[in-house]
Amino acid sequence: MRLVWSNLAIAELRALRRTSVARWGDAVAEHYLEDVAAAAKQIGADPDRARPLKGALRIFRVRSHYLILQIDTLANRVTVARVLHVAMDIERHLP
Q1: Closest-CA residue to 88 (of 66, 62, 58)
Q2: Global pTM?
Q3: Number of domains in the chain
Q4: For residue range 68-77, what is the model confidence (pLDDT) as tens digits?
Q5: CATH code at 20?
Q6: In Å, how far from its chain's centre is CA 83?
């Protein structure tokens, strides 16, 4: 399936990077974001690896964050809708 990122997920990645750089430095932040990107690619290749969440939404944990994914089988597309910290109220932030 084709993997795309929502504008909101991109903004959340940017915020995650800023926070990570401030707390742990560039190298750690880049490694963390590489892990997030790699996990998204894995889900794009095999969406069934992510747990069902609600409707067409699935959830996949990457370190201290969840990828909230929208699966559109007709369009052959997986959209990373949100990138949320595990401490957040997931239901409140669903698209």
Answers
A1: 66
A2: 0.94
A3: 1
A4: 999 999 999 9
A5: 3.30.2310.20
A6: 4
Identify the domain containing residue 39 by its residue range. 2-93
Could you tell me the two tokens for 19? 């926070």
16-24 CB contacts, 8 Å cutoff, 24+ apart: 16/65, 16/83
Report residue 11's pLDDT band, with 50, 70 and 90 as the boundaries.
very high
> Can you give the three-state secondary structure of the chain, one letter per residue?
CEEEECHHHHHHHHHHHHHHHHHHCHHHHHHHHHHHHHHHHHHHHCHHHCEEEECCEEEEEECCEEEEEEEECCCCEEEEEEEEECCCCCHHHCC
